[in-house]
Amino acid sequence: MSELYRTFVSGFCSHDNIKVPGSGRGPLAGTSFAVKDIIDVAGQTTGAGNPDWYRTHEPAERHATAVARLLDAGADLVGKTITEEFAYGLIGENFHYGTPVNPRVPGGVPGGSSSGSASVVAAGEADFALGTDTGGSVRVPASFCGLYGIRPSHGRVPLDGILPLAPSLDTCGWFARNPELFRTIGHVLLGVQPSGAPTRVLLAEDAFELADAEVRDALAPAIAAVTAQIGTPQVVRPGEMVGLAGYGEWQTAMQVTRGSEAAASHLAWMQVTDPEMGPGFRGRFEAGAKYTRAEISEAITRRAMIEGYLSGLLGEDAIMLVPGAPRAAPQRGAEEAVYDDLRDRNEFYNCAAPLARLPQVSLPLGETASGPVGLGLVAGHGNDEMLLDLAVTLAN
Amino acid sequence: MSELYRTFVSGFCSHDNIKVPGSGRGPLAGTSFAVKDIIDVAGQTTGAGNPDWYRTHEPAERHATAVARLLDAGADLVGKTITEEFAYGLIGENFHYGTPVNPRVPGGVPGGSSSGSASVVAAGEADFALGTDTGGSVRVPASFCGLYGIRPSHGRVPLDGILPLAPSLDTCGWFARNPELFRTIGHVLLGVQPSGAPTRVLLAEDAFELADAEVRDALAPAIAAVTAQIGTPQVVRPGEMVGLAGYGEWQTAMQVTRGSEAAASHLAWMQVTDPEMGPGFRGRFEAGAKYTRAEISEAITRRAMIEGYLSGLLGEDAIMLVPGAPRAAPQRGAEEAVYDDLRDRNEFYNCAAPLARLPQVSLPLGETASGPVGLGLVAGHGNDEMLLDLAVTLAN
């Protein structure tokens, strides 16, 4: 094995390297691409740069979304490319499969971990290639091989069908020799550019089901106003996203993230100062300190899944409707159970924006017998102005 | 104390409630605002809703950036407002200071934790107010009190001078009764909107100092081309950001985040399968599993600081120049020390984009005697297209 490790090889994988023709139509028609072997191609086992991983896994059932978008846009897939094991490296050597050649530097390494992708593009064996960048794995091989390379904004290119390394850092990027092609690939993979005004409305049906009936009734006219202005909402049920068992798992991710970070922020001061605090408050910080490393890691993984899911759902052109709160204001001094129910139901769907770092407004467009209730609008990251503009146009 | 807990009070703090006139000029001239008592106002002790915190802390030396922006834009600060303790609550009661009245619901709680801010705006005692939203603390009181309220995209409104609760979730938002004012506050607090083309260039001098001399020389013509196209770069030294002791702390945040998430992703499979792996690879996953809960929490806090710092620096209209890699490709089979040096120097500044979730391209615009080297360009979150356009215009 160690011979291979010290041998220069083609950037293409040596195993089971199937080709998939593109649609033949679209902005990438006539171009060829390769994909790093941690990215799924239907019918082919994703190898992750490790023979034991390859041996113990089944062929992928479907293409990663990024691959599907490129095929739809007309590009032809010409093969999978060597990666450092599990994409955890920067040099570009692979103990099992060899070191992809750097066509630009005699004797030089290609850089990693997207070593094979950079290699085949620099060698002219593909017009462009997908890689991933967690800590430099597109940017560094691009620099070493004289290529255009991008690490996109976290969350902009969907990561489904791509083996995770560190979900809160992982991104799917690409290499090209030609700057115009480099840009066109971006238009295909990044989707719609921010337009300022939404063109799609999603209605989170399961979030409305969690609200009191009087809240749903009170918000119906506001939803009708949104419909009149933008269009009929597409009904969605975010709590049923694939991979998680419902909003309860969103809530857990929220509680663990908030609790553990809150404990890190303030518990030391509380332990030193022993302040007087209202009933239950210090307990929240103490409970936050008890989450285990495994619970925190799982919350991070779930959070990245939720972020990827919601950013794919919303894109740059949609808003999603939710209740601003699941009920009107409870009475002061209500049973603790009333407050707990509010906290629970709120957390189920109102944790979506915090977990996914998205903006959300509450617009005072509903009135129940028990008091006002807001309509919640969620948009893609950075599209805050889109929501603020809607606050004005929906009021008029 | 418990009497107060069950008593409705004004949303304004009862202690040391200073007023600060605004500039008198700007889009918010003639308006009044209040700020939640976890947000700094110069000369006033931030109380965090807890008397022992208030007693054991000094007056703030400067305004939070969000407060300063509002004052600059002409708004007059009329007071601090009651918060649930450490902003960790959803109901709006405060054991020590009382429950701010909900002017819209007789007997109803205002919602929290930005309870006082919602209360004073709903009562007409201020035109608008700053709150914070970690898990619903603006959105829920807005809904309960019949107000416009926003949780902005994470990272868009600077959080300096605001007491953290859970940094990866914390945001600074606002309440208003009037939708046009609600939007104008956004224009002031969110800064410049995405323009498509950058109008400012930053040059990360300390990142270039970490690169080989031949890399700096090779990239000088490309930097001159950027200067000709956009303008003279402003020299910045991100490694010297206030609050962290240099790039070494960025690197630690990166290593802990990547290592612990990578272990969560794959170590269980490795323990079951015992795969053959290249030298050093499995050790990276095993080392990642050894980071403590405290180290992970500190990495999250540092990451949020770095994200806030970089998004403030870049805004929506700037790009920052860094070397694509600190050196040209090393030779295959070089001493491990050569690779370690590359990993170290790369991580120092190339961890900025992953930690802050920002896009970065590497453009093949430099050529050294040892091989190609890229110019790195970093932009604000979501401004990927700005970087792709530059790839094309700088090539022509």
Write a structural description.
The structure is a homodimer of 396-residue chains. Chain A has 396 residues and is an alpha/beta fold. Chain A folds into two domains: 189 residues, Alpha-Beta Complex (Amidase signature (AS) enzymes); 145 residues, Amidase signature (AS) domain (Amidase signature (AS) enzymes, Alpha-Beta Complex). Helix content of chain A is 39%, strand content 15%. Chain A has 14 helices and twelve strands. A five-stranded mixed β-sheet of chain A has the order 3-2-5-7-6, sandwiched between helices. In chain A, strands 9-8-10-12-11 form a five-stranded mixed β-sheet. In chain A, strands 1-4 form a two-stranded parallel ribbon. In chain A, helix 9 packs across helix 10, helix 9 packs across helix 11 and helix 9 packs across helix 12. The radius of gyration of chain A is 25 Å and the shape is globular. Chain A starts with a helix and ends with a helix. The relative contact order of chain A is 0.11. The model of chain A has no long low-confidence stretch (mean pLDDT 91). At the A-B interface, helix 2, helix 5, strand 6, helix 6 and helix 9 of A face helix 2, helix 5, strand 6, helix 6 and helix 9 of B. Strand 6 of chain A pairs antiparallel with strand 11 of chain B, so a sheet runs across the interface.
